[in-house]
Amino acid sequence: SLGFVYYYLAKKYDRVAYLIDMLKLKIPVIGKLYHRICLSRFTRTLAILFSSGVPILDSLDMTAKTSGNKVIEKAITEAKSSLKEGETIAEPLSNCPMFPPMVVSMISVGEKTGALDQMLNKISDFYDHEIETTVDSLASLIEPLLLGFLGVTIGIAVVAMYLPYFSVFEHIGG
C-alpha cells in the first residue's frame, strides 16, 4: 500500500515527485548509482537525438522527459530555456549540482568543437563503465552479507526446532 501511495502522490503532484527523486539521489550507495544511471541515460539519449539530426531544442525536450528523474528533468528544462536565450547548454548545467564539472566541461568542449554528439557518447560510455563497476562491487559486497543472514536464519530455525526437545529432556531427567 505504501507503493500505491508513493505512485499516486508522485503522479498527482510534481513537487512530491521532485522531492522523492531528490531523496533517491541522496541514499548513500544506491543514490550515487542512480545518479550515474540518470546521467548516462541523459547523455546517451541526447547524443542519439542530436546525431540523428533532431534540432537541439527538441532533443533537450525529449531528453528531459526520458531522464527518469525530476531533478535532472528540471535542470535540462532550464538548459533549454537558456539555450533559447542564446547561451550554451553547458552554462545552465554548471549551475546545477546534479551535473559534475567533468560532464559540464566535456559538453562545453563538444559545443565549441562541433562534436557534441561524440562528447556526449564519451560521457555516457564513462558512466556506463562506472555503473558496471559499482554494480559488480555491490554484488561482491552483498554476497557475504546474504550468506551471513542465511546462516543466522538457519541457526535460529534449528535452535527453535530443538528447544522443545531440550525442555522435554529436562523434565524427563528430573
TrEMBL record:
It is a multi-pass membrane protein. It is found in: Cell inner membrane. The chain crosses the membrane at residues 145-165. The keyword Membrane applies. Residues 42-164 form the Type II secretion system protein GspF domain. Pfam families: T2SSF. One of its GO terms (cellular component) is plasma membrane. Keywords: Cell inner membrane, Cell membrane, Membrane, Transmembrane, Transmembrane helix. PANTHER family: GENERAL SECRETION PATHWAY PROTEIN, TYPE II SECRETION SYSTEM PROTEIN F-RELATED. Belongs to the GSP F family. This is Type II secretion system protein GspF domain-containing protein. It comes from marine sediment metagenome.
